[in-house]
Amino acid sequence: MTALNQRKSYNGIVTSIKMDKTVVVTVTETIRHKRYEKVMKRNAKFYAHDELNECVVGDEVTIEETRPLSKLKRWRVTKVKERENQE
Asked: Which of 3, 13, 60, 73 has a C-alpha 20 to 30 A away from that of 22?
């Protein structure tokens, strides 16, 4: 049996950090066309809450669904999986 309040979560790449405590995360999904079976990529952008402003463009992060935080923000960064190399 699954939990009643299971939240959606996605893995994606941070593409913008220009806002305060907000990052834009691009999630790429690979799907197969129902009829032609061609493999396609779909991109979706999500505005996610980053409380500590710790994300950098290029980081791979996990985002989780949450209550509406602003007009566009309905996600929050839960974990930074891989850091972008900074030199």
From this structure: 3
Give the bridge partners for 80, in sequence order. 61
Q: From the CB of residue 7, how many other CB atoms can be counted at a distance below 10 Å?
A: 11
**Distance between CA atoms of residues 47 and 72, nearest Å:** 6
Q: Which residues on adjacent β-strands are paired with residue 78?
A: none
Q: What is the pLDDT of residue 86?
A: 65
Find tokens 């032609």 and name the residue. 36
Say what the pLDDT of residue 61 is. Answer: 97
Determine the Cα–Cα distance for residues 51 and 69; give it in Å rounded to an integer.
12
Q: Which residue has the tokens 């999500």?
A: 46
48 Cβ partners below 8 Å, 6+ apart?
22, 23, 24, 25, 61, 63, 73, 75, 76, 77
Query: What is the predicted pLDDT for the residue at 19?
Result: 96
Give mean pLDDT, residues 45-61.
96
